[in-house]
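WARN retry 2 of 3 for item q-0093 after timeout on previous attempt; input resubmitted unchanged.
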Amino acid sequence: MQDIERKAIETFTKNMAYFSMEHPDLHKKIELLSLAIENGQYKEKYALEYKEDGYFDLLELESGKWLYGSSSSEMAKQAASRVNYSKNNGVIETFYNFKFDQKAVDTARSTDPTASSFATTAPVISYIDSIIDKNTTTMRHIYKFIFFGTGLGLHLKEIDRKIDANIYLIIEDDLEIFRSSLFVTDYFEIGKKSRLFFSIMENDYIFKETFNRFLHEAFIRNSYLKYFLFNDSYLHKIRKIQNFIVTSSHITYPHHRLLQKNIRTLETLREDFKFFDVSKSHNAELFMKRPVILVAAGPSLDKNIEWLKKSAEHATVVALFMTTPTLFRHGILPDVIVHVDEQEHPVLSTLSKVEDHSLYGRSVFFLSPSVEMKLFKNIIDKEKTYMFEDRTRYRFEMGSLEGFSVGEIAYALTLIWGTKELYLLGLDLALDRETGKTHSEGHMSAQNRVETGRTEEGEVVSLRGSTFEVKGNFGGTVKTTPLFDMSIHRINFFTGKLKGANRRVYNLNDGAFFEECIPTRAETVDLGKIPVKDERFTDELAEVFDTHADNRMSPRELDMFELRIKDAREKLQAVKTFSETRQPSVGQFQAAFTEVASHLITTPDGHISELSQILIIYLQNIGGYMGDFFNTKGVDNPKRHIKYLQRAVSEQLIKIIEKYLDAITAGKPAAQ
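OK item q-0093 returned
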C-alpha cells in the first residue's frame, strides 16, 4: 500500500510540474484548491481510495456513493473498446452537409466570388461529397478527441493508448474530481506527444474561448470530432459545443461577405468621406450634459414607443437604420443613424417603407465604409456623415470596431463618444415572451417567430432557429438564439472595455440581461426636465464629431497599402506554384495543401492583411471537407481525385485573391 501511495504522490507532483510549465492558469486553480483544503477553508466532498481488488475509486462523502462502484481499470478498458473510427457515432460534425447538383456547381464556377460563399466552395464540397459516403467509410486516424468528464482519468489513458490522437480537449466541471485524478493519471505523459486543451470548472464564456482555441488548432482536422462521454451529466456540454460551432466566425460571417466588405471599403476610401476615430474614447461635453437613447429593433421598441415619443426631444436619439420606418411613422426624427451591413437587401427593404426620404436629411450618419453607398448618397448629408471601419483596418490609425450585429457596434459608439447617461431601447437580443418574435413591427424580420421547443441532442443547431435560456433583464430567464447570444457577449465586452465607473447605462428592455447595465422600466424614467433640443442640434453634433475625424490617410496607412498589394501578389504566386506541382499521393497532396494554406493565412510581422482573414475563413469552410478526404480510409482512384481537387482548390483560391488584388490595386489612394 505504501508503494501505491508513493506512486500516487509522485504522479500528482509530476502532473503539477507539467501544469506549471504548460498550463499555468490551471496549475494556479488547483493550487488554490489545495491551499483551501489545507487551511480548512474548503471541506472535501470526495475521498480517493485504493480498493483491495486493485483499483482506485472515489467516494462521495455525503452520500456514501462510489464514482465507479466496480473496477475503474476494467471500466476504462471497456470505454476504450467503445471508441472506433466510425463517422456516425461518438462524433460531433463541424460542417453542414451541403448538397449540390452539377448545374449548381457549373453556376458557381461562373459566379462572382462576392455573391455567395458557394461560388468558391461548391466545386470542392460537391466533389468530395460525391466520392465519400460517411455511412460506408471510416477514418484513417483520429486527430482530435474530446473527453467529456475525467473521472479519475483512467479511461483517458486507455483511449489515448488506442487512438494516439494529436490533440485532446479534456473537460471536467468538478475541480475536486479533476484534482483527485492527478494522483492516478499521468497527464504529463500524454502531454509529451499530444497537444492538450483543458476546460476545468469553467463558466460558459471561458469554456467557449477554450473550445474555440481547440477548434482552430489544425482546423483541417475538424471534420469529425470524436468524443467520449463519461456520464450523462455532460450531455449539455455537447449542446453547448454545437452552439459554439454554429457561431464560429467562418459560419456566421462567410468569406464572400468579408471579401465584399473589403471591396466596398476600398471603393469608399476613394470618395473622400470623413473617418471617425474609434481607437479611443472622447469625453465630449455634449454627451456629458444630455442623455442618449439608443434605439434598436427588438420587440421592446413597440412596447415603449409612447415613452420614446415623449422623451425623444429631451435626449440624443441614436437609431439603427432599420428602425427608421417605425420612428418616422411616430414622428420621431433620430439625431444619429447607424448602419454597418454591406448587404443591399436590408437597405432597400427599409427605404421602401419610408415615403419621404428627405426625413433622413437632418440626421448625422455613422456608416461602415462597406455599405452600398449608391443607396445612401441621395439621403445623407456628406458633411454630417462619418465612417468607421468594422472587420477591416485600412485606416488603422482611426481604429476599428467588430461586432456580430449593428446593435452592439452602435452601443460601442455611444460609449466612445463619452455618453454619461445611456438608455437602451429595443436592444432585447431575446425572443418576445408572449409572441416569440425577434424584432419589432416594421423590421424586415418582424414576422420571424422562433419556435422555442427543445432541440434534442444530435439534431442540427442553427443560428436563428435554435433557442436556449439566458438571464432576463427583469428577472427569470428569456429565450435567445445563438446569434443573439454572440451579441450579448459582445455588449458585455464593450461594457468592460469602454464604460468606466462614472457612466450609467439603463437597460429598458424585457429581454436579455447585460452586465453593468441597470434594469429599468421605461415608464419610471422621466427626461422631461432636460431642455428641449433646438433646430441646430444635429449641426452641433457634427461639429463635435468633426474634432475627432479626418478624410486623409496618414503616411503609415499609405505605406501599409503597398505592403498589402505585395502580400497579395505573393499569395497568388504561392497558389499558382501549388497548382502546378505534381502530387503523386494523398500524403504528399495533404502536405502541399497544408503548406500553402499556412502561407495564405500567415501575416508578416508588423503587417495588416485583410486578405489573410478572408482566406482563413475560406479555408475553414472547405477545410473540414478536405480533411475528410485526406483522412478517409480506402478511397478509390486517389490519384484522379487528387488531380481534380488540386485544380479545383487552386482555381477557387485564385478567384478570391485576384478579385481582392484588383480591388486594392484600383483602390489605392494617391499620396496626400
